[in-house]
């Protein structure tokens, strides 16, 4: 026997994209603003039975963990409710926490970047050496299995960078905008576009 109640709930449950559109005034990903303390409860109360705990977490948890949101907290000022109404202020304690959190995220990001850079350098050295993996592993004093894993990861990362550059340059060309206009629209440095174009002229 089909549970009609469960079927109805599933059919009417609101998705993350739908909720972002409904509350774009406060959940915009391009201009994040500090959210009201307790906004999750307001959201659930506004749509009883139509938002799961998982959806609420995906919507608000992911939104508030982004560096751009933390930067908004650091800046301070009003907090905002679901409909864009002012609902409290960011406290100095909250600003201090956000500053610490941003610093931690940047440290992790910089550490990961250095590891990727080291893998990229290792791959370039291997390709320039003319040696097979066994010979290169012995030369570098690296276990063969570890070298093989690092080289595979470096190749995957290099391909991903190439694909990202292709996507970016293709979007620029399709936009009909100048490089400066496109960079302003996408909120990225012009130097990133210039670097992407230069890299695509080289071997991927």
Instruction: Bin the strand percentage.
Output: under 5%
Which stretches are low in confidence, meaning pLDDT under 50 for 5 or more residues running? 1-11
Helix count from the secondary structure assignment: 11
Structural class: mainly alpha
Helix content bin: over 70%
Main β-sheet description: 2 strands, antiparallel
As for the number of domains, it is 2
* Dominant shape: elongated
How far apart the termini lie comes to 57 Å
How many β-strand stretches? 2
- Computed over alpha carbons, the radius of gyration is 24 Å
What features would you describe in this structure?
The protein contains 11 helices and 2 strands. The radius of gyration is 24 Å and the shape is elongated. The protein folds into 2 domains: 4-90, Orthogonal Bundle (Fertility Inhibition Protein O, Chain: A, Domain 1), CATH 1.10.1710; 96-200, no CATH class. The chain has helices spanning 4-12, 16-22, 24-27, 39-46, 53-64, 67-75, 92-129, 133-140, 144-175, 179-186, 190-200; strands at residues 78-80, 86-89. The chain has 204 residues and is mainly α. Mean pLDDT is 89; it is low at 1-11. The relative contact order is 0.07. Strands 1-2 form a two-stranded antiparallel ribbon. The longest helix is centred in the middle third of the chain and has 38 residues, at 92-129.
